[in-house]
Structure formats: structure tokens, C-alpha cells
Amino acid sequence: MLILLCRSTMVLKEIAGLLTKNPQEIKKNVLYNLGEQDEIEILAISTFDDKLLKSIIDNFLELLGTKNVKSVDLNPYLKTIELLYWWLNLGGFRKKKMETLMKIILTELNDLKDNLKENITKK
Amino acid sequence: MIIIYHCYGGAHSSVVMAAIHLGHLPMERVPSNSEIMAMPLYEKMEGEEHGSFFYCGRDEFGNDVYVLGRRALNIVVEPVLKYLAAKFNNEIIVVNAVTYVNLTMKIGGFLSRKLKLIFLGRPLVLWGTRKAYNKFTAEIKKIKGEFQC
């Protein structure tokens, strides 16, 4: 499972549109299920304090003893002022930023896939 | 099952509720200030510890009780934890302890934890805790009642 954290629902919805055809809203404006990519479920959470939420999620997953779950905080790649650029789409900003974000997401997805494969071969 | 009591700082209401749940504080009477202060986590959690789950113990039904300081993420924490727990086949109860907190506790907690004015905040938060104590016990009775059925 890959968990994406981002303070903007606007950006998350755009990412959802690229990753899946049918994103499910589990909790309005908070929690979205973006479906599966190569058998890895993708969740998206919109919140303002992502650093804290990331540590809550990581600690909780540790408590549950689950592996093969990764949480990615997208906010360091998306400054507050950039949300305005995104909204206005100045100079095709949205497309450029989306490429950066998708690269990060796909890298994390590939990492997870590799981990899964490693775990299967170990078994 | 996992039971998580969460509040803004994880220093007052959630700690008291977890202590009542585990029988460290009495259910049938309001404890004294010294009894409340004797709780190891009461008035202890610092800002950098927010987001960590503090294990408080196991109750008589075999549930593990935790305390969490989650700052203002009250709307987000519950659905996320519940979803993840269900996903990985774990049963969980998430209790927002702030629901039962009064204004005195809020002001006292802010003065003591945020502004570090302990001499001013601590008596206030203790007074508020004792005032809200029956609300805490009523909720815990309700939670425990579900296990007794």
C-alpha cells in the first residue's frame, strides 16, 4: 500500500485522475482510495499538517506490525505559493509540477514492488 | 483489540481516560490532585513526542490501551486509523478525549504545555480535570459495557 499525503485536495484529485479512473472518497475531503497499481493499493490523504500525520501513520503501521506500506509526504515538493500557481496554471505550471510529482510517486511504487518481490522470494 | 485515546497534546484528557480505563484512576469517585499527578504521563508529553503512540497497558478484556497526542488532526486521525486497522485485520476503538474536555482544562493545558506557565496552568488543568471527571468515567463505562455484552 502506498499512502500519499498532500495538503491540497485540488492536487490530489488531479493525481487521482492520472492514476485511476474511479477514485473513491472514503471520508469527504480527507481520505481517498485511488485504486490499485500493479496490485499496490494507493491511498491519498489531504491534511494541513502532513509531517505529523506521516509520523502518526508510520508509528501506527509499526504498531500493527505491517510491512510493505509506505507513506509519502508530497508537501516538500509543493510549496504553498505553488498552489496558487497550480490554481492559475501559470506557464503550464500544473503539467510541469504533475510530472515531478508523478515521478516521485512512481519511484515509490517501484520501490514497494521491489520490496514485495524480495519478500516473496525470501518466503 | 487496540484502544486509542487521543487529544491535542496527549498530556491531560487522553491520559486520564486511559488511566481510568486501566483502573489506575478510580471509576466511582473523583480522584485527588495528587492521585492525578501521580499518573506517569500526566502533564508530561512534549511537542516533539506528538504523533507517537504511548502504550499504557492491557485492560481486563485483553485490549491494549494507547495514548496519542495528535494536535489539531482530530478530523483526519480517526478515519485514517480506522481504515488502516480494518485493512490489516485489526480491531480498533479510537476515542477523541477532547469531546469531554471543558474550557478550564483547555486554558490550563495551553498555559502549562504551550506557554510553559506551569505554576498557572497546572492548577487550572487539574481543577478542570476533576470537574470533567464524571464525563470521562461515563464514556469509559460505555466503552467497557460493549465488551461485557
Strand element count of chain A: 5
What's the shape of chain B? globular
- Write down the secondary-structure element order of chain A: EHEEEHEHH
Indicate the proportion of strand residues of chain B. Answer: 15-25%
Brief write-up:
The complex is a heterodimer of chains A (123) and B (149). Chain A is α/β, with parallel strands linked by helices and 123 residues long.
Key structural traits:
heterodimer; A: 123 residues; alpha/beta; 5-stranded mixed β-sheet; 4 helices; 53% helix; B: 149 residues; 5 helices
Structure description:
- The complex is a heterodimer of chains A (123) and B (149).
- Chain A is globular, with a radius of gyration of 15 Å.
- Chain A contains four helices and five strands.
- Chain A starts with a strand and ends with a helix.
- Chain A is of the alpha/beta class and 123 residues long.
- Helices cover 48% and strands 15% of the residues of chain B.
- Chain B has helices at 13-21, 33-37, 74-87, 103-114, 118-148, and strands at 2-7, 53-58, 64-69, 92-96.
- In chain B, helix 4 (103-114) crosses helix 5.
- The interface between A and B is medium-sized, with 21 and 23 residues.
